[in-house]
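User: I'm new to structure prediction. If I give you an amino acid sequence, what do you actually give back? Let's try with this one:
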Amino acid sequence: EAYMREIEENLLEARGRVETEAERLQLDQEAREGMEAYMREIEENLLEARGRVETEAERLQLDQEAREGMEAYMREIEELAAQGNVRAQKTAWKWKVRKRVWNYLEDNNLADFPRPVHHRIPNFKGSTEAGMRLASLPEFEAAQVVKVNPDTPQKSVRVAVMEAGKVLYAPQPRLRTGFFSRIDPGVVPRNKMKFAATAAGMKQFATPMTLEDRTKIDMIVVGSSAVNPNNGARVGKGEGFAELEYGMMRQLGMIDESTPVVTCVHDSQVIEEDLPPAGQGMMQHDVPVDIIVTNRRVIRVDRATRLPKPTGIYWNLLSEQKIAQIRVLRELKALLEKES
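Assistant: Good question. You get back a string of structure tokens that encode the predicted 3D arrangement of the chain. For your 340 residues, that looks like this:
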């Protein structure tokens, strides 16, 4: 209400100085656009604030509901694995790792908004410090174009990319509406960079890119549920979009084997044992990381022991249903067929 009164007073004052109807309409339009942007920012801040001030009872209830849903899914995967379903057998262990990490973050109050962290790239206390530490890496300083995942724990990294005057690439949500969105240096005012690093801000400030864009990416930042410091093995939230995005970039020549893959996580998400467990392995399309940045340290994975990176999209591992659900995958397949 106070903001609206200020807008109205400014309009009245401005209208006293202008004479034409066109100028009046232009001022009205600018005020509406400014108010809409301001309201979007207010709404996002309210959502974040509500996440911080919810009662412990409400948080525990949400946590319990999320865990029950995960348990049901886990049982289904385990039953399919016991019945001989090969894909279930290959992925069931990943859900156990995710569950262990998510529960640990929640049970030890290391999780941060949005909570509960189950079925997300988990946000954690210290994520801003981890993002600042990532921004001090020589690889980051040398990079001109940085692709960052859109999840909450990497928000500080997206802000750091803009503050450093670099080009920011971020995937469109679940690749539903397209490929990547791009923010060039100078597009976002410094006082709007935190907002621009959110989903709503990306819609306002970023430019949607098509598969025709072959910009060279200098660094990839991914979110993780768990990572192994010895071989770089990474487990995400289970939807596979980081792998799809990497495969598409590799297929289009936007990245290569040498492009550093970096993740920022809480120290407790760094797991040396059972990732993967004995007798199991990572899948061909899984993306290992080169550098792990935590709230306390930087870990560089030995290239001699790091798992191999995917060389593109492995179409034989994608179901027809998955391809049908993601338009940009269908477009990529058609483009590659045309180019070949």
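You can read the tokens as a compact description of the fold. Here is one thing that stands out. Strands lie at 145-148, 167-171, 180-183, 207-208, 219-222, 226-227, 234-235, 261-265, 291-294, 298-300.
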